[in-house]
Amino acid sequence: MLEVLHLDNHTIVVNKRPSDLVQGDKTGDEPLVDKVKLYLKKKFNKPGNVFCGVVHRLDRPTSGVLLFARTSKALSRLNQQFKDKKTRKIYWAVVERKPHHKKGTLVHYLLKNSKQNKSYAFNEAKEGAKRAVLHYELIASSDNYHLLRIELETGRHHQIRCQLAEIGCVIKGDLKYGAKRSNKDGAIHLHAGELTFIHPTTKEEITVKGMPPKDAVWDFFRNKII
């Protein structure tokens, strides 16, 4: 069930399904990192424990391109890369309402509420809040929904979900941020479609793309996602 998009001696990139949990939590569900370890163990017939480092995360109901490190050296270098904002992340979101402008930049200050596992957006700096910036463009519309291409400049907790909801463009299925109804599988229509990073040893720029899961809404917009 693992869709591998890229694999070399130091990195592995998979296309995460909406139901996958990246790392273990109180649910006790098997995390994606363990599935990747098992895949590597079987593929390369490795005895004992297999190293697989989590470089970044996607919310459980979100799907898309997810990078793991296969060596500790790679993990350290990739972590620094994400910290220094040297990666490029493109997302696709299906929202319930068309934005007022075809394209734009959203700047908010996000305050995370850990008890609610939710972030709140403010237009001005606030104690404890972190500056969040994203760029969006309206790509296509159906009768009921609208497809946005999003490029993240910062990586904050629930950033895309929170910022889009703040301008009235709630992501389809995202009850936590005000969607009209949930999706049957608990997913939300937010997909990490593209990740560009510098390879930790070769220094080559690598871009990996992954398509969203199959369902009626994503399928309607699929030929618009490039």
**SSE run:** EEHEEHEEEEEHEEH
Number of domains: 1
Shape: globular
- Helix fraction bin: 10-25%
Which CATH-level-2 architecture? 2-Layer Sandwich
Structural class: alpha+beta
- Cα Rg: 18 Å
Mean pLDDT: 95
Strand elements, count: 11
CATH topology: Pseudouridine synthase
Please identify which CATH superfamily we are dealing with. Answer: Pseudouridine synthase
Tally of DSSP helical segments: 4
Largest sheet: 11 strands, mixed
Specify the CATH class: Alpha Beta
End-to-end distance: 24 Å
- Parts with pLDDT < 50 across at least 5 consecutive residues: none
User: Proportion of β residues?
Assistant: 25-35%
Structural summary, described in words:
This protein has helices spanning 32-43, 72-83, 159-166, 216-221, and strands at residues 4-7, 11-16, 53-54, 63-69, 88-95, 103-113, 118-122, 130-141, 146-152, 190-198, 205-209. Strands 1, 2, 3, 4, 5, 6, 7, 8, 9, 10 and 11 form an eleven-stranded mixed β-sheet that branches. It has a single domain, classed as Pseudouridine synthase (2-Layer Sandwich). 17% of the residues lie in helices and 34% in strands. It contains four helices and eleven strands; from the N terminus they run E-E-H-E-E-H-E-E-E-E-E-H-E-E-H. It is globular and about 55 Å long.
